[in-house]
Amino acid sequence: MGTERAGSQRRGIGVVEIAQSLGVSTATVSRALNGSDKVRPELADRIREFADAHGYVANRHARALSATTSRAFIGFVIPYVDTPAFSTVAAECGRRLARDGTQLILTITENDPERELDQVKELRGIRTAGIVISPTPGILDETKELLGSVPVVEFHRRSGLAIPGVFMDDRKAMADAFGRLTELGHRRIGYIGTTQDLSNGIARQDGIRDGMRLAGLDATDVPTQLVAPVESAGFEAATRLLEMPDRPTALIVGGGTLSLGVADAVRQSGIEVPRDLSLIVYGDPRWFALHKPPLATISAPYDQLADHAVGLLHDALDGTSADGGAAVRMITPILRPNGSLGPPHQHTP
């Protein structure tokens, strides 16, 4: 599909246009689209096929949402609600939008592209003024088409559309973390990250590779585990690395939920941090400050991300988006060293 200015809303076809195009009454169109048996089956099929082909989205709540109140609702589409990367941003965006009398309608895709499509259809059906989304890997073309018809802002993950977005500069953050470990003398550094179907997972591994090159290391020096972004996968990946005969002297974790599992695996292994292992995790420093010792954390400033997401959304709604409607904001996470970093300790396999 061709790219459009995010601030300019492309109007989908409505019941009146369908009726005029097919030479039938609006009542007939309405009945056919609502599944009434009062329309001849062949005519109903013709109407529905025409509507689908021309991007019609049912306005299920048109009576409830008048033109003066349609801007009061924003769709917020996230993969999970139980991780700070998404729940914190949702809460922060909700607070900021509430100041303008705007409410979030939250949907959870669980990384399912089909569910994501259904949810975006529903949000368009109730005529939300805009959508903030962290897209699923493998987002469907039909979903992209629908997103092209409404002011939209992406965050954390990229869909490939030329639309506004705000993202963490995870590549730089990971390269900086790797550099901190090599400055301490580490030459065997393990990495645990997410699979490469996630755009932020790709950026984080690219940062690790950047750090490797700067340190003169190669892939054999950096044992890597790429797993699903769930706590249990982080635990299992860390266990595999820590059980290697020539185990890493340091670990970097490229994901907040993964970090919880990794921290648990390190604790259960009996390996002493930082004497036997230096550890850098990703996520909310308030959680990892409770660890003994407090863990070095790549900390994502979610409040800044929410500020930028709401600002970009307002620009898109007002038709004032910069950069041709596809403005991108990058935020660099902060490395908080804490007590889990130290020089490498030689261990006996």
Automatic annotation (TrEMBL):
Key words of the record: DNA-binding, Transcription, Transcription regulation
Domain HTH lacI-type residues, every copy: 17-67
Keyword Lyase found: no
GO MF annotations, alphabetized: DNA-binding transcription factor activity; transcription cis-regulatory region binding
Name the UniProt record assigns to this protein: LacI family transcriptional regulator
